[in-house]
Amino acid sequence: xxxxxxxxxxxxxxxxxxxxxxxxxxxxxxxxxxxxxxxxxxxxxxxxxxxxxxxxxxxxxxxxxxxxxxxxxxxxxxxxxxxxxxxxxxxxxxxxxxxxxxxxxxxxxxxxxxxxxxxxxxxxxxxxxxxxxxxxxxxxxxxxxxxxxxxxxxxxxxxxxxxxxxxxxxxxxxxxxxxxxxxxxxxxxxxxxxxxxxxxxxxxxxxxxxxxxx
Length: 214
What we know:
Elements: H1 2-8, E1 14-18, H2 24-29, E2 34-38, H3 45-56, E3 61-64, H4 76-86, E4 90-94, H5 107-123, E5 135-138, H6 139-150, H7 160-170, E6 175-179, H8 195-213
Parallel strand pairs: 1-2, 4-6
Antiparallel strand pairs: 3-5, 4-5
Helix pairs in contact: 3-6, 5-7, 7-8
């Protein structure tokens, strides 16, 4: 993944090893890349860490891409240029923009669809992929996300993405989407959407919505 990112864009890269239990740490030691290591899995903390470091170093934009090979690094420059050209506060890489690509009749699919509809209603604009983790933050959106976290919000990793979008929408920030292709996960399981967290998702979503809007 790192090789593909480097080949796709000439950006500074920070890798966050969030409590991995495989060989990630040893592999990263052999690479010339900045690494931030969390000793245990910390939920939404990697996003906060990346935003805080990026803003502290003076970057105007922070881009997040997952390390599980679901996202295509060649889309990074497209998202970045879209943010610059449109002046958007956030640009989301959407897998559903042109056509819904999820399994709508699955529990996960219904959840993704409902969350996107919820954010669309609050924001007043069409959002098709509220659970996408492939995105660009401009300065103001990054600062608001950091502030929200420090104020006790955005702590539940299964609803972090939706709660963040609701907070930004309430602040009247401009959220744009750009169509991207996301590959299906071939190995491992999502830590944010385990069976237990999926069962608790409706309750956590209600809590996150209330925190964001009230």
